[in-house]
Amino acid sequence: MIELFYASNVISRRQGIPRQRLTFVLLVENHAYAKQVAVRWRGEDGEWRDTPARYMAPTGEGREVWRADVEVALTEKRSLPGNVQFVLYVSQQGREHWENNGGRTYALEADCGVLLGERHPVAHLDFSPHVRPEQQTLPVAVAVRGRAAEVAIEWSTDGWKSKRRTKCTFSRRYWDREELSNARNPNQYGVGVWTARLRVRDAFRVEYAIRAVIDGKEQWDNNLGVNYVAKRDSLKVMILNLHCYQEENQMAKLATVAQAIRQLKIDVVCLQEVAEHWNDGAGDWASNTARIIHAQLPQPYYMAVDWSHRGFERYREGVAILSRYPFMRTEARYVSESQDIYDIHSRKVLMGQIHAPGFGLLNIFSVHLSWWEQGFRTQFDALCEWAEQRHTRHVAATLLCGDFNVRVGSPGYAYIVEQSDFEDQFLKIADRSAFDAIFRHPRDDGARRMEEDRRIDFILMKRNSKLRPVAAQRLFTDNVYGRVSDHEGFLVEFEPV
User: Fold this and answer.
1) Count H helices, E strands: the chain?
2) What stretch of H or E contains 263?
3) Looking at residue 215, what is its pLDDT?
4) Which of 36, 151, 305, 328 has the greatest count of CB atoms below 10 A from its CB?
């Protein structure tokens, strides 16, 4: 039901004040979603304490990885735990199970380093399934019990179409270097820690296993048969028409938009009906709604803004792109025949090119077009021609994002389907059968099936782009973040193909 993968007991002096850190990593048989996992332990004061474990990741053999951490700082009123004894606990499906090392209770001497579970002579320490956006190397620490002649990481960034091997190195000063600790390497349990750094660069996904030759015998830690997988977060793209200062409680609603971007960690935001006071045509940057949202986001967040015409007789109205990644280039141009700033059908589109680690070079267009009867076809043709020109061989994907002012199932939507190389990514996730009936294997009932879908806001991606949508949702509805505009706002998440 539950077993020890590894545990560690280290006294760190890196922060000046000695701190004792206890780590317990457990393997739990998964028989139910709801379960309680904990470690019961005591230090030299003899008092038993329960520390809940938290779920980390699935692993092979129908098991899950759980982890419990304890950190105690030395103070005048509290000593460090010192030598520690512990047992493991799990409760699921109404059944409790204790693992107490065959009745002997597990023991960890103070500042000993790592103790490995009995059936795990090799263990990946501190595994994380996440690769940060800016991360170019992946550190791997491996604990090995016994005399190791070689420890190496077998890894791939392309699903094992190609394979690499990186040898681990061994340092007797590992614990001193990492934690200013007195732990020995190898320690009194015969466990030594080896390390490697995998040069993953901009790879989205890394899969790997650990091979060690111990006392002349080959041993593996391959995550119980399923390998270790670390990857970057999906690319999150959001679209929203802000309704050009026509909302009640406008500042509160702009704050809600910023809150959603922060909480969901959205990478790219395409905004339409971005407004600022007209001010005799000179504008008023302080009142710009994209600027107000941007000011409430964690930095760095990059912003590009442009305007096309006077909206609602009072505002400079335009579009914007917010991005967690810097712009390689930006460009704005009218796609409408009219470029009269007093004509609401003067439509300017903004393009931003970014490089997202793990995804490559992306062209993002923030779009607000006129209705079908007011020039949509001409504007959409000009937009597609521009997007095609910018989609060079180095570009991984091109996305047209925003308010197209044509409903799903309408003649304008049919024009997108029949006359362009772009596809509706929200629909691809929300209703794959309808997507196939419209974009892949057209059927007469395709449009009829979409009668209840009243969207006019789309994230369209060029066919054969090197991204695929993996999730989608409506954001600013009564049941999610609440209404902030007369548009709902949509989020689509992508992974590389």
Assistant:
1) 7, 32
2) helix 250-264
3) 92
4) 151
At residue 55's C-alpha, the angle toward residues 98 and 258, to 5°, is: 155
Quote the Cα angle for 248-266-317, to 5°. Answer: 45
- Per-residue pLDDT tens digits for 4-63: 999 999 999 988 899 999 999 999 999 999 999 999 999 999 999 999 999 999 999 999
Closest CA to 68 of 5, 25, 107: 25
| 286: DSSP letter | G
Tell the burial category of 95 from Cβ atoms under 10 Å away from its Cβ (0-12, 13-18, 19+).
exposed
Pairing mode, strands 130-131 and 228-232 = parallel
Distance between CA atoms of 76 and 82, rounded to whole angstroms? 16
Alpha-carbon gap, residue 472 to 493, rounded angstroms: 6
Q: Which helix (H) or strand (E) holds 429?
A: helix 425-430
**pLDDT, tens digit, for every residue of 419-455?**
999 999 999 999 999 999 999 887 666 566 667 788 9
Distances 144 to 68, 238, 417 between C-alpha atoms, Å: 21, 46, 58
pLDDT at 16: 86
Beta strands in 357-489 (DSSP E): 360-368, 395-403, 422-424, 457-462, 467-474
pLDDT at residue number 409 = 87
Reported for 293-298, long-range contacts at CB under 8 A and 24+ positions apart, including other chains, are 293/254, 293/257, 293/258, 293/261, 293/269, 293/322, 294/322, 296/254, 296/255, 296/258, 296/259, 296/262, 297/258, 297/261, 297/262, 297/322, 298/262
CB 271 within 8 A of CB 366: yes
Query: What 8-state DSSP symbol labels residue 439?
Result: I
Tokens of 212: 């060690």
Mean pLDDT computed over 122-129: 96
Amino acid at 261: I
Average pLDDT over residues 354-367: 97
Kindly state the helix (H) or strand (E) to which residue 213 belongs, with its residue range.
strand 205-214
Can you give the pTM of this predicted structure? 0.89
Please, what are the domains in the chain?
1-111 (2.60.40.2440), 121-231 (2.60.40.2440), 235-496 (3.60.10.10)
